[in-house]
Amino acid sequence: MASVDEMPATRAFRRALDDAEGIAVISEVKRRSPSKGDLLPGLNPVVLAREYERGGASCLSVLTDEQWFGGSVADLQAAREATSLPVIRKDFTVDARDVVDTRLMGADCVLLIAAALDDHELSDFHALATEIGLDVLVEIHGEAELERALLVNATLIGVNQRDLVTFEVDQERAVRIAPLMPCGVVRVAESGVRDAGDSAALHGAGYHALLVGETLVTSGDPAAEIGKLRAVAQPDR
Known about the structure:
By secondary structure, this protein is of the alpha/beta class. It is built from 10 helices and 10 strands. Helix 2 (about 45-55) crosses helix 3 (about 75-80), helix 2 (about 45-55) packs parallel to helix 10 and helix 4 (about 95-105) runs parallel beside helix 5 (about 120-130). It is globular.
């Protein structure tokens, strides 16, 4: 089995978001949702990833959790090989081995969900990921978790507007938390992005990127939908 030292260099996930003109879109390859079931029967990760790239996405997010989302490592590898875009592995990272596996499967960024980790795990996994060449998206749901993310020197932070237990979306959560994030943090709004109006509101609040799954997967024309989400004024940074 290959070691992380033998892996090729990663694509710069965080930089791709920071360098984007206007608001960046992280487009998600998502087969199903725990609350809604199958989103696109027969989803082809290669076709979808290429549509995302054609539409102007800055990065890809690929679900690898099989139990809840129907994803796989094969989906991630196929989507990444089909495009030039950096890819985040979207899964539940709960062990140091998950961080290493993320690198070995070819992802460029790992997701750390603050709600699923204690302070030591969050710090250790963040440090390990950085050491082996991964960017790290720390996902938070509120002000207390933002403080924890900043304590581990996270520079890429996502605000998930969806409750992990009820699956309900709070459309105001990201806007409320944005002013609390310091300069130098690349800010990502996750979940509940439905249309250009949501994109404009989040852009105006200071977000650099949107992570969008269901809206794109079910749109029928994901490339065009990305264009609509990105057609907003460039924010001040």
